[in-house]
Specification:
Shape: globular
Structural class: alpha/beta
Number of helices: 12
Distance between the termini: 10 Å
Order of helices and strands: HHEHHEHEHEHEHEHEHEEEHH
Number of strands: 10
Helix content: 25-40%
Strand content: 5-15%
Bound molecules: S-adenosylmethionine, iron/sulfur cluster
Radius of gyration: 19 Å
């Protein structure tokens, strides 16, 4: 998922979160945090059933977030960047354009990641609502061919209107079977006038798809070396996964809110509930002992301890 780059906000946390005496145990947590991105799951409904997708395991009813709940969750004093997607297809939420407009009116940068299948009829609405970024999720390059003409039309219409935004990205989930096709996807993105390619690793700790495997560290290194050259030659931006650390970059930069308003540390921990964003502020939850304890202990967490995303 692409919403983790966020914006650098040096010392933002220190200013925004002056710790009281009883909260000093959190100092080390917030000292190292310079970013805050909200990733909000605006729907659990989807029109595809991708084999790698965690949505398959979650078995939740299809639900969409209401506009009023979205407004309640988004705290513009805290968040500078919002990713409007979780385990579902965001364009299935009929309020998505109002959500983008609302976030923009509050000065919050907006990103949406979509499978692109519903793009054709929504090009005008997307451009009119004015997201800053749109990323097309790709895990099977063959499936991409179905939506390529629509992505081309989208980029064409944006350019015809002389709009600088949204920036358009390919968001590629990398694993062994699609590895050899990544260099060509970067060439394709460049040919289509797409601004950047984001590569993220497959997350398969829950065994969502037993048929697919992540790349070995060595193979990944070779591929990254090759595609960096391709991207440099074509002058297209390439975002590669960063080195894993504790707390990981996702924790340092972002927080996830599910369609039910549950606050969790990461999209890959959708059931690790740390609070309810419809009952209390996300800011308050981030200052809670529960959140601080999660961060301190995450190295020993059964999922985080094994994660290399
Ligand atoms: C969960 S989808 C939601 C947005 C939209 N439905 C889509 O497919 O782009 C967002 C991104 O996550 C990727 N993704 C899905 N399952 C994943 C997994 N197990 N590990 C890593 N990325 C995954 C998708 O390929 C897509 O790039
Ligand atoms: S990856 Fe996206 S399109 Fe595919 S099933 Fe998951 S939410 Fe739907």
């Amino acid at each position: 998922m692409s919403a983790y780059r966020g914006l650098p906000l040096t010392n933002f946390f220190k200013k925004e979160f002056p710790l009281t005496g009883s909260e000093k145990h959190l100092t080390h947590v917030f000292d190292s945090f310079r970013y805050r991105t909200l990733q909000v799951e605006i729907t659990t409904a989807c029109n595809l059933d991708c084999t790698i997708c965690l949505r398959r395991k979650l078995e939740r009813p299809n639900r969409s977030l209401s506009l009023s709940d979205f407004k309640r969750i988004l705290d513009p004093g805290l968040f500078r960047y919002v990713g409007l997607h979780g385990w579902g297809e965001p364009l299935l939420n009929r309020h998505i354009f109002e959500m983008i407009e609302h976030a923009r009116s509050k000065g919050v940068i907006t990103n949406l990641t979509t499978n692109g299948t519903l793009l054709a009829d929504r090009i005008d609405e997307i451009l009119d609502s004015g997201p800053d970024e749109i990323a097309f999720g790709i895990y099977d390059p063959d499936l991409l061919s179905n939506v390529l003409p629509d992505i081309e039309d989208f980029v064409g219409e944006r350019n015809k209107r002389s709009l600088k935004f949204p920036k358009v990205y390919f968001d590629i989930t990398l694993y062994q079977e699609n590895r050899d096709r990544v260099p060509d996807l970067i060439r394709l993105a460049s040919d289509m006038g797409i601004e950047a390619v984001i590569i993220h690793r497959l997350f398969n700790l829950y065994g969502v798809d037993s048929e697919v495997e992540c790349l070995s560290a060595e193979d990944e290194k070779d591929l990254f070396k090759e595609i960096k050259k391709v991207a440099r030659f074509l002058k297209i931006k390439l975002y590669l996964p960063e080195k894993h650390s504790y707390p990981c970059l996702i924790i340092k930069r972002s927080i996830f809110v599910t369609v039910d308003g549950k606050v969790t540390p990461c999209t890959y921990l959708p059931e690790e509930h740390l609070g309810d964003a419809l009952q209390e502020s996300v800011k308050g939850i981030l200052k809670s002992r529960r959140y601080g304890d999660f961060v301190r202990k995450m190295k020993r967490h059964p999922v985080c301890g094994k994660c290399r995303w």
